[in-house]
Structure formats: structure tokens, C-alpha cells
Amino acid sequence: MTIIATQALTKTYGGGVTALSDLTVDVDAGVIGLVGANGAGKSTFIKIMLGLLAPSSGEVRVFGLDPVTETDKVRARVGYMPENDCLPPDVSASEFVTHVGRLSGLPKTAARERASEALRHVGLYEERYRQIGGYSTGMKQRVKLAQALVHDPDLLLLDEPTNGLDPAGRDAMLTLVHRIGTEFGISVVVCSHLLGEVERICDSLIAIEAGRLLRADRISSMTTASDVLAVEVSEGTDELASALRALGFIVTPDGRQLLVPLESETAYDRILRAVADLDLPLHRLDQRRHRVAELFTAKETADV
Amino acid sequence: MSDAGVIHDIGYQRYDGPRLGRAAVLGALYQHGLRATFGLGRSAKSKIFPWGVAAIVLLVAVINAAVRSQTGTWLFDYYAFADSMSWLVIFFVAIVAPELVSRDLRSGVLPLYFSRPLRAADYVIAKVAALATAVWLLLGVPQFIMFLGGAFTTKTGMRGVWHEVGLLLPGWAYSVLWAFIFTSISLLIASLTGKRAFAAGGIVAVFLMTAPVVGVLSVLPSHTANDLAGLASPMSLISGVEAWLRGRNDLGINVGDFGVIYGIEAFCLITACLLLLLARYRKVASL
């Protein structure tokens, strides 16, 4: 199901700055990564989808609705988590999320119930009765996520949800986002300038650069047939490399590891047998995907 | 997983209840704002000031009603009460207007508001209505207490009560005028900065620092300048409107033949402030 569709979408700001140029993309439901460097047009794209900015030309449809003319209908189904700090310090998370729930059109009691539900889902329990000013950055990010969830949207737009978090906090946030996308049945657009971070949790990826579409596709199709097995042995690395080459594999040494592309079903077993035949102490056997980043930067060479 | 004491996650529940429209959202924001003006739902600290001011004006009204019932003469009538209390209201709006709008600017919460069905105009209407209601309550409730005092001690029965109602209603209308002049000016100033202290200072300055200008103009040797002096400050402007509408020149302000100018300026000032406020939020909302 297509949830976001754009047709030659262009946004030019007053000073002649082009934020988006001729963007045409169809996005299916699921977890979607929107990647690009700072200033690539990610935030502009989000604001256009929310009806906060009108496109200069071209069309955009969210759930088949035009955000410019049917703003309320779109916003009722979309939750937005901005990049910047946006929480008042002197109220409790539970009061605040209830308040924004009411501003989304929920009746009073429903807003209160949904607020505690949303806070529970993002992992805030007793803390939610404390004032937000005393929260850690990680907890604040969770409150920001909860306020986007409170009116039960069908689509979440998250602008840099891992901003300012430590590695553990990043992982927790990404896991949460992935859970929302898979278990809650809510589609999520995750904006990030870190490709490696979103590729783990996304079903599909949109990459933009300077307002232009670089590539939009499902992650699975970007990485098919490019799985690589990383083999590391404590000793006899060269021996193994020549043995594998003799078996017809293309072996690339990478530091202490050997990278071997898995081009057939039986390749994994054959590599393993080669290691066993040489009786080498196996240290690591790691099946991994090509980083999506490689597909963007050096697609031609990666295909070799 | 099945340890005792583990709260079982029943999973995510979709919401399929009613979703209310923009009118209800505006109502919710108005209610939230009105509660905030009196510090309800906020810390104890933020209740002190509004309730302190409320206590003073109520006390004055009670004393006024008591004196009248004993001696038969007013300390203040309904208009004079609003005029005198307006000096206290300056400090009330200087604290409360930044609480309503500067706080939202400071915490950056507006993108969350404006990504919901709410529009800039709705936000402005809700905040103006909330502060205007608060200021009106601050003047209107004590006026009502004065009315009760007068109505219960009247010696002419129902006719006396109706006479009192006839005095109260224009008094309330006058308080509405005060409420709008305070609300429009103070919200406009507060919407320009996220720092509450600056906003409070700016509001007090506009209302108080303009008073000396009126003083200087009113002692100039020109008769016209004296009559127009009150236009320079919002405080004397409203008194001037009263003097014009009631045809009085014993209110400490002389408007001469220029009464209608006071009326026009009051109207234009309120309208201009509200339009500027709307323009300000149109800009903020699109960020």
C-alpha cells in the first residue's frame, strides 16, 4: 500500500534556495528511512507532508490526501516528532502528553488514557509524574515520541529521533521505532543523517541529496545477492585464502579477516568445510550484508 | 517471563473513539490557558501572584460594599473600581501574559501544536480569550460582590435591585474594555520574546512609562494638547473613553471635544495589536 506519493515535488524558499527539487517517489507502508546530509531537504519534506509548508510546484499525497487542502484529515493520521527540544520543563510528562492529546482532538478522558498508554509504550512508567525538566535526554526523546503517538496516528514522522543520545540510548530508541513499525502497525518515516543507523531497522530507504532523490527502494532489493561471509582464523589466514581461491571463491583480505561473497546456496558449507579440512582455529564466522552505504557511494565497483 | 509481579504487556491498542474538530481543540487550549493564568495545574509558586492580586481586589470590593451598606456612600462606583484596580492589573498581566505565550516560545512547543489541527488564528484566539477572561474575572467578580452588597441593602425593594443591575451591567462592559486593552497589548509584547522577565518588563514599561508623557502633555500651555494628552498612555486612554461615553469631566482626565478620538484610538489600538499578534503567529506556525 502506498502511503506517501510525490510527483515532481519542488520547494523553493524566498531567497531562491531550493530545498527540494523534482522529487518523485512512492513510499510503501512500513519503516522508512529518509537519509541525507544536513540541509539535504529532509525537514522540508516532512513539513510539506504535515501541511506546514506549501510546495512551490508538484504534488504530494499522504494516504491519498493533499496536505495543502485537507490539512486536518492528514494531521489526524500523522504524528510528528521534531528534531529540536520541544518540551516545557515545568509540567509532568503525563500532563503534557494529555494536553497535546487534547489538542489532537481527543476527548478529555480518552486523552488521559491514551497519554498513559503512549508513555508506557515508550518505556516511561512512574517517572511520568515527575516534571520534564528533571529528565535525561533519553527520557525527553521518549516523551517526544509519546506525544507523537498519543492520537494513534497511522504514520509517524520522526526527525532525527536519536539526536543527542549515547550509543545505548540510540539502540534503545531504534529498537522502539522498529517495534512501533512492526508490532503496532504504524508506518514510520525516520529521518537521519546516519545511514548505518537506519538501515538496521528500515524496510525501505529514501536517500536525498541537495533536494534531489538519490535512490528509493526496499532495503531487501538493495542488498540481495550481496551477502558476504567474514571469516577470521587465529592463524593460517593466507593458507585459507589460497585454499578458498582454489575452490573458486573471490577472496578479499580485510585486515585479519577474509571477506568471501556468498553467491550460491552451498557456498557457506563449502567455506566451512575448507576451514575444517585445513584444521585451522576458527575465530569468527560472520554473515553480513553489504552496507547500504557502499551501494550509494561505489555502486559500480560493488557490482564487480 | 511469567514471574509473579510482571505486568503483562497487552500490546498496542488502536484508538477508534471520536476525534473532535478544531472548535473543540480551540476550547481545550482556551481552558488550558485560563487555568494557567491562575496557576491551576502548575506549581504552588505560580499560584502566589495571581491569587495575591485576586485577594487584594476582592478585599477592596468587600470593604467597598461594607462601607456603602453602613454609610450609604461609595468609596468607588463600578467604573472607578475598575479604574483604580487597573494599576494592579498591570502587574497581573505582566506576570500572566508571558506565562501564556513566552513560555510556549521558550520551550519550543509550538511545532507540536501547529503540526496538529490547530492553526495560528486558533492559537491566538484561544490565548486572547483566556487572558481577557482572566482579567475580566479579576474585575468583574469584585464588581459582582459590590452589586450583591448594594442589592441586599437596598431600601426600595425590587426597584432598587433593578437599579443596581442597571449600574452593574455597564460596569461589566467597562471591565471588558479594560480586559481587551490589557490582553491585546500584553500578549503582543510577550509574543516577541521567549524570556519571561523581558516580556514582563516590557509590559510594565508600556503601561507605566507612558504615564509621565501624559503628565507632561497635560500641563502644556496648549488647550488641544491637554485634551489629547490621555491618548499617549493606554491607561488614560481608557479613562478618556469613559469620560467621553459618560459625558463626565470630573474623572481626572479632560477630553474636551475630542472624546470620539479616544474611542477610535482605543478600538484601533486593540485591533492593531490583535492583528499584529496574528501576523506574528502566522510566521511562527510556518517554521
UniProtKB/TrEMBL annotation, chain A:
<dbReference type="InterPro" id="IPR003439">
    <property type="entry name" value="ABC_transporter-like_ATP-bd"/>
</dbReference>
<dbReference type="GO" id="GO:0016887">
    <property type="term" value="F:ATP hydrolysis activity"/>
</dbReference>
<keyword id="KW-0067">ATP-binding</keyword>
<comment type="similarity">
    <text>Belongs to the ABC transporter superfamily.</text>
</comment>
<dbReference type="Pfam" id="PF00005">
    <property type="entry name" value="ABC_tran"/>
</dbReference>
<protein>
    <submittedName>
        <fullName>ABC transporter ATP-binding protein</fullName>
    </submittedName>
</protein>
<dbReference type="GO" id="GO:0005524">
    <property type="term" value="F:ATP binding"/>
</dbReference>
<keyword id="KW-0547">Nucleotide-binding</keyword>
<dbReference type="InterPro" id="IPR003593">
    <property type="entry name" value="AAA+_ATPase"/>
</dbReference>
<keyword id="KW-0813">Transport</keyword>
<feature type="domain" description="ABC transporter">
    <location>
        <begin position="4"/>
        <end position="235"/>
    </location>
</feature>
<dbReference type="InterPro" id="IPR027417">
    <property type="entry name" value="P-loop_NTPase"/>
</dbReference>
Automatic annotation (TrEMBL), chain B:
<feature type="transmembrane region" description="Helical">
    <location>
        <begin position="79"/>
        <end position="102"/>
    </location>
</feature>
<keyword id="KW-0812">Transmembrane</keyword>
<feature type="transmembrane region" description="Helical">
    <location>
        <begin position="172"/>
        <end position="190"/>
    </location>
</feature>
<keyword id="KW-1133">Transmembrane helix</keyword>
<protein>
    <submittedName>
        <fullName>Membrane protein</fullName>
    </submittedName>
</protein>
<keyword id="KW-0472">Membrane</keyword>
<feature type="transmembrane region" description="Helical">
    <location>
        <begin position="123"/>
        <end position="152"/>
    </location>
</feature>
<feature type="transmembrane region" description="Helical">
    <location>
        <begin position="197"/>
        <end position="220"/>
    </location>
</feature>
<feature type="transmembrane region" description="Helical">
    <location>
        <begin position="260"/>
        <end position="279"/>
    </location>
</feature>
<feature type="transmembrane region" description="Helical">
    <location>
        <begin position="48"/>
        <end position="67"/>
    </location>
</feature>
